[in-house]
Design a protein that fits this description.
This protein is α+β, with helices and mostly antiparallel strands and 101 residues long. The protein is built from 3 helices and 7 strands, in the order ββββαβααββ. Helix content is 34%, strand content 22%. The protein is globular and about 35 Å long.
């Protein structure tokens, strides 16, 4: 599954960005895989909670935001934009990576 310079391999449970393997926790991988399956679409936080955690999850309300922040840190690549876009008040969208400048 390729989205821009991201390649998600569910069978091998790996992610690479621009050819570099990015180590992710199981939860981060599940979150990114869910977003990649819906690349270009806005995914609501509640949908992410239900899909990646569980419909009955009683944890902190900002757990999705925390995991997205961790993903962004791991996906940072000089000269490339952040592939995860925040849609304020709604959720997140995974966009094809674009080279800056």
């Amino acid at each position: 599954l390729a989205v821009g310079d991201l390649v998600v391999d569910p069978a091998a449970h790996t992610l690479s960005r621009a050819g570099v393997i990015v180590p992710l926790t199981a939860r981060e991988f599940a979150l990114l895989h869910y977003l990649a399956d819906r690349a270009g679409d806005v995914v609501r936080r509640t949908d992410l909670l239900e899909a990646v955690w569980d419909a009955n999850y009683d944890g902190l309300s900002n757990v999705v935001d925390v995991h997205i922040a961790n993903l962004r840190r791991k996906l940072e690549l000089p000269g490339h934009d952040d592939p995860v876009e925040t849609v304020r008040g709604v959720g997140y969208r995974l966009l094809p990576g674009r080279t800056s400048g």
